Fold this protein.
Amino acid sequence: MEAFRLLHKHHLLFQGVLRIHFIEAQDLEAKDTYLKGIVKGKSDPYGIIRVGNQIFQSKVIKENLNPKWNEVYEVSSIKILCCASCKVVL
């Protein structure tokens, strides 16, 4: 695996609110099993989002491999460091 460098010209620091739209997942692997793994059922998926030291957990969608959460999370007073001209070099 090759390392990469991030080249930049200008740093921009933004402060504001980060809004996360946690929408859906598709074709998840069935994790619930029956009869010692012979019969695969569905799953009870949920999501965990970590931004800095804040953690958000979505609701659990029972027995569904294509869950739709449609949840929105907000992180206030977040500082985001961006660069105006970036290039990834492999």
Summary: The chain has one domain: 5-89. The CA atoms of residues 44 and 62 lie 4 Å apart. The domain at 5-89 is CATH 2.60.40.150 (Immunoglobulin-like).
